[in-house]
Amino acid sequence: MIEFHIDCDNTGYCWFFECAYAIIRLKRHGHILMTFCTGYRNENIFKTETIWYGDKDTSYERDPKEMLEQAEEGLMASPGHRRNILNKWHKKVSLGIAYDEERLDLVQHFEGDYVDFSILPTILDSNLSMTGRATIGTIKNVTLYYDPLPQPLSPEQLGAPPYDNAYSLGEYVGVILSPPAPGYHYTDLSPNDVVATTWDIESDGLFSIKADVSLILNTGNGVYTVVLWVDIGGEYVGISNYSIFIN
């Protein structure tokens, strides 16, 4: 069953509550760590518009329910958005709706809830560590993605490439691998393929992982998103999107 989270006011605006388990931590002394969602999230966005040919009829007003149906039909007609809606691993969806007399914007924000961190992912002295329990699947590896630190953007900039399209986890910058079994070793590792110094995985999903990610951090200050990957019957599923801001 998917949980729905939505709230609205009487001005034609609704908003979604992003990441119920969000945590924000700000540390002074020149180093900022900001952490957000612990589980994964995906998003769909759709907007309807009214295009006028000739003079605009100021008395015209569209039915918001009709625009909402148009938005959902448009999402279901798009293979990528449809696949996101029907993703069997989603457990929660939050909805954001804003509309006026001739336009409606719809946001669908999907979340999983398959990891419980007892120690949240932390980067300290170039070491990434995390402890917790995966409630589904078998942990296979951890990947890191990078984005530059956020900068103020004008409405004009937000409406132009590359900000006017879909977002992603960021630039892939490295993977943390489990240590090989005794007598074995990895071959042809790239510089950003990191073998964990601690990789304790229990059958009940409990885990403790630590790795030296100094080479990955050479990418520079920015936002590093940690994705914990599990194998569920042969299907790889990312169960965390945990972002660490390093300034």
Set down the secondary structure blueprint:
Elements (H helix, E strand, L loop, with lengths): L2 E3 L1 E2 L5 E2 L25 E8 L15 H14 L1 H7 L6 E8 L4 E8 L3 E10 L2 E8 L3 E10 L7 H4 L12 E7 L15 E3 L2 E4 L4 E7 L1 H4 L4 E11 L2 E4 L3 E5 L1
Parallel strand pairs: 1-5, 10-11
Antiparallel strand pairs: 2-3, 4-6, 5-6, 7-8, 8-13, 9-10, 9-14, 12-13, 14-15, 14-16
Can you describe this structure?
- The structure is a single chain.
- By secondary structure, this protein is mainly beta.
- It has 2 domains: 106 residues, no CATH class; 134 residues, Immunoglobulin-like (Sandwich), CATH 2.60.40.
- 12% of the residues lie in helices and 40% in strands.
- The protein is built from 4 helices and 16 strands.
- The strands form 4 sheets. Strands 9, 10, 11, 14, 15 and 16 form a 6-stranded mixed beta sheet that branches.
- Strand 2 and strand 3 form a beta hairpin.
- Gyration radius (Cα, Å) is 21 Å
Structural class: mainly beta
Quick one: overall form? elongated
- β-strand percent reads 35-45%
Predict the CATH topology of the largest domain.
Immunoglobulin-like
- CATH domain class name of the largest domain: Mainly Beta
What distance lies between the first and last C-alpha atoms, to the nearest angstrom?
39 Å
Low-confidence stretches: 1-36
CATH arch. level architecture of the largest domain: Sandwich
Number of helices: 4
The tally of domains stands at 2
Please, what is the average pLDDT? Answer: 82
Major β-sheet profile: 6 strands, mixed
Number of strands: 16
